[in-house]
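Hey, can you fold this?
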Amino acid sequence: MTVDDIKQVAVIGSGTMGNGIAQVFAQSGFGVILIDLSEEHLNRAVSTITGSMERLVKKERMSADDKDAALSRLATSTSLAQAKTAEVVVEAVTENLDVKSKIFGELESICGPETIFASNTSSLPITQLANTTSRADKFIGMHFMNPVPIMKLVEVIRGLATSQETYDLTAELSKRLGKTPVEVNDYPGFIANRILMPMINEAIYAHMEGVGTVEAIDEVMKLGMGHPMGPLFLADFIGLDVCLAILEVMHDGLGDPKYRPCPLLKKMVQAGYLGRKSGRGFYTYDK
């Protein structure tokens, strides 16, 4: 199979990452079926995608006709069975190994034997996820960055059994989406989060220990290190629950205490202070 053979892509999960992934595939000329558990989630995702495209039109980065064409290539469903016609399935559900494994186990009996399975996981082992299927050679990690329509990077993660053909196809597919694929091997956190999350975690420790206020820590990293946003603001943007989940995967998988999640991070997640999506994290947001 080549990229030209890919006509239909199924995206599982319509949250922040899933709807962004569905948008870039639809904009790039692929038919997309966006699948989630509820119509409410899907309607919200389509509204988000439409709003994102309308902003691109206003900025003259997309024509109104291209927007309408892209939206016409997007369909939604609450049935996983609708993935059966897809040549590629991209999973983008919650960062939970059991949930992802269950979905891939179900997809195994739905999709044809040539279908490529890709996970957007930000930290979980691709090799372990692939083992829930009988197509480990056609299983790969495709880790997009948030916000997906803007960020250029895709970490393309090889599992132990991922074939060269699957890697080459996924790298070329990423380029068709206007992204830059970077090859990564299968270790907890991959590259992006293995480097980013300890920095965020250390910033939370610095705040907890009274080294500086939230604003001070973020200003130092922006003005002194040239970061576009401070680590605590970035943590809110990612979601504190997501940050915690990634740190726990790295702490468990690598066994190094330097990845131990800060107690303040755990406490905030327990309180429901998840960042921007909940209206409160290190900063307060207008929902």
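Oh, and this one too while you're at it.
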Amino acid sequence: MKRILTAVLLIAVVFALIFFGQLWMLTLVAALVAELAAYEYLQLARTKDSSIPAWWMAIGTALLFLVTLPNWPVEAQLPVLSALTLLLLGYNGFSSRLERVLPDTAKGLFGLIYVAYPLTLLPLMWKREDGPALLLFLMVCVWTGDIAALYVGRNFGRRKLAPKLSPNKTWEGAIASIAGSVLAAGLVILIGDQLTARGNLLLHISEPVWQSLLLAAVLNIAAQLGDLLESAIKRGAGVKDSGTMLPGHGGILDRIDALLLAAPVLWYVLLLKDTLGLGRF
């Protein structure tokens, strides 16, 4: 019951932000989630002889979101990442054992790229002309795929997908996950068409249906990889869950692991479409 109640609450908050929120609200909530997830990452990355400064991770995460605000160009994220990396390198160089300088600096940079950067893309996508439809499409593909994989894998799964990373995941669940995302994407398209016919362009999708369905499959595969790769990090750290912040769900990272890979993939697709002049979503 805790798991269901937590999921319902989270979905309600996300939908409210997408359709009724403002840019600063979405940015603030995404930044808060990133800070909490970054804290969990620090615990996973910590070893007995090294750790990443919590102050550095907190400041770095906040700065990455700060430069997504309208007065900053998107390109500002790269020099900010570079400056933060050099700062961490300098700190480690003078305060850590010499053999730990490179791995600790690398783990810190990876934490920002893995946890913070993907979540900064959510407000960036939301403020596009088709932003709400984009984010709804992304969330639906991730969520429905996860639900389908859980149900089918638990009841019908036989062949293990990646037993080294996640013993409970099966090929049957993975295939059902893709099918679930594609079917849910088709439902979003259908609802969008019905709304458009009534003059409401909130969920209008202009690209051909086959492209949207293909995109749903691609996002689902990215989401499943994101889930498996977070499992690899947790197993390397010797833990089952990234934390206990969400009742019935484990940690923040456990809930957003799929999104951390799916969101960048969607952003890259959008950049590719813009660069090649392939039109809007």
